[in-house]
Specification:
helicase, five-stranded mixed sheet, 48% helix, globular, Putative exodeoxyribonuclease 8 PDDEXK-like domain-containing protein, 13 helices, PDDEXK-like_dom_sf, ATP-binding, hydrolase, Lambda Exonuclease, Chain A, alpha+beta, two-stranded antiparallel sheet
């Protein structure tokens, strides 16, 4: 009887794995990665990325649900950031972005919402920054791919200068100078560290060096969302990217097992999806809150 139970369990696990593999086959990219399909769900099944990796690190339960049930991300912060990015990609890209997101950008009166009035201030501030305009030269929205510890990765770089060995990433943030509280580490951190942009830079740097065979240096172009936008170029001099690559190496196998249905996803318990699906059966003391 015990043997039968074990066989049934194995069969159940195999069926689950086959189901996941079937999903991946159905979602398989039908053409090479390009600007049209980069953000497609099929590309996320085919390639790991800094964004996807960080989602799984935050909450595997929520990240897996989003991967299996894709919906358009219409968060205002994301659209505002892309509004700024598209301006410095090209005039055509910015106009196309505005046309595609006009209902999000404009209010009922036809005028831009407050967030986009502020975003335009950010654009104007960057556009009047001579050092930025001089440095920000190269291929815009460059797609890169590579292999990190046995898994294929993808990335999209705001501005890539292959000859100079430089790549730039525009980051919009509430404040460049303020530090943000990290509940896990119980410390305040600058926005680059707090939002783990170092992992993104480490992954991009590794993929570029695999592709071109020489060293690349990342530079963040930061602009704040304040009424009077602050601006700053930020380098990573003295920063050790090995710690970010080690984080990927230590966690990637488990994440891939979760994606393939070979491991159960953990629930963080406090993200929106965890709260939406929460079904508590216990009673806790007021002293434990």
């Amino acid at each position: 009887m015990q043997q039968t139970m074990l066989e049934n369990l194995k069969q159940s696990q195999n069926l689950k794995l086959l189901s996941q593999l079937s999903k991946m086959t159905q979602k398989k990219l039908k053409e090479p990665l390009n600007s049209q399909n980069y953000y497609d769900n099929a590309a996320d099944w085919r390639y790991m990325s800094p964004t996807l990796f960080k989602r799984f690190m935050a909450c595997e339960f929520s990240a897996l649900h989003a991967l299996e049930n894709p919906v358009e991300n219409d968060a205002e912060a994301l659209i505002v950031g892309n509004f700024v990015h598209s301006y410095f990609e090209s005039k055509e890209a910015h106009e196309a972005f505005i046309d595609a997101h006009s209902s999000s950008i404009n209010g009922k009166n036809g005028k831009p919402k407050a967030a986009y009035v502020k975003a335009q201030k950010m654009i104007n501030r960057l556009d009047s920054w001579h050092a930025f305009k001089a440095a920000y030269q190269g291929e815009k929205e460059a797609i890169v791919t590579g292999n990190l510890f046995g898994v294929d990765w993808k990335g999209k770089i705001d501005c890539l200068n292959v000859e100079a060995g430089l790549f730039f990433d525009i980051k919009t943030t509430r404040s460049i100078q303020d530090h943000i509280w990290n509940e896990e580490t119980r410390t305040k951190e600058n926005f680059i560290i707090r939002y783990n942009y170092t992992l993104q830079m480490a992954a991009y740097k590794t993929m570029l060096e695999q592709m071109y065979g020489h060293e690349f240096t990342p530079v963040v172009i930061a602009v704040s969302k304040e009424d009077h936008p602050d601006i700053q170029m930020i380098s990573f001099d003295g920063y050790d990217f090995d710690q970010d690559l080690q984080l990927i190496k230590d966690n990637q196998e488990h994440i891939m097992n979760v994606i393939y249905g070979k491991a159960e996803p953990f629930k963080c318990g406090h993200c929106d999806y965890c709260k939406d699906t929460k079904q508590p059966t216990d009673v806790i003391s007021v002293l434990d809150l």
